[in-house]
Design brief:
The chain is of the alpha+beta class. The protein contains seven helices and seven strands.
Length: 198
Amino acid sequence: RQGRRLDLPMVIITGQGDEHLAVQALRLGATDYLVKSESLLQRLPVVLESAWLRAQLERERVALHESEERFREMADRIGDTFFLLDVPSRRTLYVSPAFQRQFGWSAHWTLDGVSDWTGLVVDADRGKVQAAVEALYASSADVTLEFGLKEHPGDDRARFELLLRAWPVFDAQGRLVRRAGVLQDVTQRQDFEVMVAQ
C-alpha cells in the first residue's frame, strides 16, 4: 500500500491459529482482520464498511490537522491580533501571539474569557466595549469599535487606541456558532489625527 501510495484500508483474512500474523499485519498498517470461519461471508461486509469508515475518519482528521496548522501559521504571521470566540459557551478559543507582541499582555491570559481583558479598557470606553461584547454573542451583525486600552491595571491613561472588527461564523444550519475578529493598533493614526487637528 505504501509502495504504490494507495490510500485504501486493508482487511487481512487469516486461517485459524494464524492470529499472530494478523497482529503483525495490524502493526504494519492493516485496518482490521478476520479469521476464516463459517460466518466469514456474513461478517465481511460489516468489517469492510467499518474499515472504510475508519480510513475516511483518519483522512478527515489528517486534513483537519493540516488545515489547523495552516490557519495557525497564517494567524501567527498577521501583524494584528486575530481572535476566535465560541458563541454558545462564550469562551475565547484562540488569540494570536500578536496580542502579546502588540500590547505586552499574555495571549493565554485572554483565553479565560472576553470579560477578563475588558478590565484593561479605559474607563471612558468600558461601557461601549461591554455593549459590543454582548453584541458579539447576541447578534449576527458585524461589530466595529474603537477604544482605548490601558498599559497597566489601575492606570486610566490609554496606552493604545484599538480598532476591533468582528464578523459572524455560521454552521451548516445557519446558526451563529463562532465570532472571528481582528484587533488593530491604530494609536499612531490617532496621534496623527490629533496632530493634524491642532
